[in-house]
Amino acid sequence: MGVEEYNAKEEIKEIVEKCIRCGMCNSHCPVLRVMRQENVSPRGRTVILDHDFIEKSVYDCTLCKACEKKCPLNLKLCEAFIKARQVLVFQGKGPESENIEN
């Protein structure tokens, strides 16, 4: 793991570990409204990231920040999701890497 990947993971952890899992962030999430799956909700992604598991569901987020507006702790969840996307790119698991032929 490179320094940039490590730093991004630390920044993610700093944001998501403060989450109290109240679910207020889910109330206006357009992705949750359509997909109706907890793992793609802001709270679901936060729980997954807090367990140091980064998956491609972070790309499902529209980054509209509706979750941040409803968060009682004013957590910058979209920033954590962007950092998680960066980690996936560092690991060669970004969306572009699937289209590259070796």
- Number of β-strand runs: 0
Mean pLDDT: 92
Low-confidence stretches: none
CATH class: Mainly Alpha
User: What would the principal axes of the Cα set say about the shape?
Assistant: globular
Query: What is the CATH topology descriptor?
Result: Fumarate Reductase Iron-sulfur Protein, Chain B, domain 2
Write a brief structural summary.
47% of the residues lie in helices and 0% in strands.
Commentary on this structure:
The structure is a single chain. This protein has 102 residues and is mainly alpha-helical. It has a single domain, classed as Fumarate Reductase Iron-sulfur Protein, Chain B, domain 2. Helices cover 47% and strands 0% of the residues. The chain is built from five helices and no strands. Helix 3 packs across helix 5. The longest helix has 14 residues, at 3-16. The protein is globular.
Write the layout of secondary structure elements.
Blueprint: H1 3-16, H2 30-35, H3 42-50, H4 66-70, H5 77-90
Keywords:
102 residues; Fumarate Reductase Iron-sulfur Protein, Chain B, domain 2; mainly alpha; globular
